[in-house]
Amino acid sequence: MYHLISDIIRQSEENECVFWEIVQQADADERGVSKEESFETMRKMYQAMREADEHYDPKVRSASGMAGGAGQLLHEYNETGENICGDFVGKVMEKAIKMGESNACMHRIVAAPTAGSCGVIPAVFLVAEEMLHLSEDQMVEAMYVSAGIGSVIAENASLAGASGGCQAEIGSASAMAAGGLAYLQGGDAGQIADAAAFALKNMLGLACDPVGGLVEVPCIKRNVAGAVNALTSAQLAMAGIKSAIPADEVIDAMRRIGNEMPSNIKETSLGGLATSPTAQKRIV
User: Fold this and answer.
1) Is residue 205 part of a domain?
2) Is residue 8 in some structural domain?
3) Cβ-based neighbours of 97, under 8 Å, separated by 6 or more
4) Cβ atoms < 10 Å from Cβ of 185
5) What pTM did the predictor assign?
6) Which residue segment(s) compose the domain that 69 sits in?
7) Cα distances (angstroms) measured from residue 246 to each of 176, 188, 200, 236
8) Average pLDDT taken over every residue of the chain
């Protein structure tokens, strides 16, 4: 078992295996299944992400009317070739917002790690699979990397906006995606940890202030920010840049920041964007 990112790194070195295999073994041991069964369960999770992306419906709107259709607008913009972010980043942005909208419209998604942050990991991974010509097995391995990072965050800090603010949701998802992408690009355990640290550091202090108490505004667009943050964080790590603060200490800082946050910006809709004049007019 592991409790820290440093535990996973140490165990991978001691056992001469890669990051994801440590997470897989822990899952198999905890659930009392074989490693093969664990792998197939994780494969189904990844396939569910792909299916959710494929079933995006641009015509559907959320019950509040605040969400729906933005993913199609971004798709059309990407098709013009005018998105200066380029194909990879443009597609990541598109898939992130589509998944967030699907959640708001009550479609089937994978909470990774939460429903409000469900667009970050699928956006990064689905585009990476396509653009980097990766196999589904490689994507499943990356899912384990993300799961390991998420598990450590859940144990030592929080994944819930009500507890730690949006840093705990989009921030955690971004760290998980960054670590997974670093692995897919050939990163070792240290680079995976650095990528996760960079991503989470960039999201520290992010408030959870949903308009009307709904996981729509500003939550959906924050999935785009989290996904793009994951891309840049992974590239820093792959360039050989080291995080000045170790991943475990960044996670601990996130916990302390979350504890110090006032309750009005932790999913209560009593502060932040939720109490802006425009938000107040939109609440039914």
Assistant:
1) yes
2) no
3) 70, 71, 74, 119, 220, 221, 223, 224
4) 17
5) 0.98
6) 17-282
7) 15, 15, 11, 15
8) 97
